[in-house]
Predict the 3D structure of the following.
Amino acid sequence: MERLDRKLPAAFLLLLPLLSVSGVANQKTTVSWCVLSDAEEQKCLDLAGNATALNIRGTLQCVRGLNTRDCIDKIKNGTADAASMFADDIYAAGLCHGLELAAGESHNGVDGISYYVVAMARRSSSDLSLLEMHERSSCHPGMRTTVGWTVPIGYLVNTSQIRVGEQCNFPRAVGNFFGYSCVPGVKDPQHDPRGNNPKNLCEACIGDDNDRHICANSHRERHYGEAGALRCVAENLGDVAFVKHTTIFDNLDGKNQESWALDLELEDLKLLCPDGTEAGLDEYEHCHLAAVPANAVVVRMEDKCRVWKFLERLQNAFGNGHQGFSLFSSVGYGGSDLLFSDATHHLQRVLGSYTSWLGPTYTTMLQAFECEGFC
Ligand SMILES: *[C@@H]1O[C@H](CO)[C@@H](O)[C@H](O)[C@H]1NC(C)=O
Ligand SMILES: *[C@@H]1O[C@H](CO)[C@@H](O)[C@H](O)[C@H]1NC(C)=O
Ligand SMILES: *[C@@H]1O[C@H](CO)[C@@H](O)[C@H](O)[C@H]1NC(C)=O
């Protein structure tokens, strides 16, 4: 018995190099992707099968996550290796968990940029400046959305118009700042557990045709979403709408058959620029609150290179213009933007840190929320 005990460590030491070599080899060839739905999991499994069939070096595994936060935790502790995420989640993954990016999506148009957030107003509204929005009426697509909340509130905090104070109560600070406004969902229990978010943030909301669901976090509120925020300004209930640069073009020329949209003309509206000036609707490239970066692939720092190399092989085989499995399409899976955005043209390597991908203006907007309890 005693002899065995003494022998065991020696035998174990001999095995150790073998164990760690096979451990490293295994880690080096497998990339496990964190997926969030049945549809995404199926696309991931099909990709894995097609990659194996083509003898592409490396093995893709698909790991099911409960939500983005869970995927971040899994990547951090090694239960998963990678997942594509929205800009806001990339910031949390980087700042709070030290994760980095292997690759980012490039959409048609400007590299790495998904869209611009702009401030839109009626041309007839004079004396309106983004530098003096106090007591103005504002229309937001939704609570805690990038377009309707993170970017505009981040801008107003950065320019010291909104002061959050030590309470870090953003809804209250925003309610004190603006006049009658519409932030759909601001009074939902999910965003307002104590029921004391300011009522004025629902006063420019209109609900459905029967005046029900006022301020609802859904399309039943007719001022919900980007089209709804635009409508809110078009109908003169708000002074300014925070929308995407594409929102106006998505709702003109009969693309939206609702009467408010049919009555709308390009000449009726203008952009408000962050320096206090104004511009035409097509001048969003120099008159925007933020350029929102496209989604990118979150990984552990030490996996940046390895995961990029694997993705490079996958997109060479299954990127745009190839037959068979299509990496940037979700057709046939009953969902959209699975694994990657459907608008992706190709993936590009991210060599710098996650903040280089997010860009200085967008990072500044997010920094405004670094209040107690952010991480
Ligand atoms: C390849 O992908 C297609 C979908 O594009 C799927 O039907 C097929 O089963 C996949 N092949 C393998 C070997 O997994
Ligand atoms: C890793 O994190 C996930 C998500 O929090 C958790 O479910 C899992 O048990 C963790 N695994 C390990 C090995 O710590
Ligand atoms: C943030 O505020 C500072 C000071 O007002 C300003 O110089 C800077 O341009 C602002 N940044 C952004 C991204 O708006």
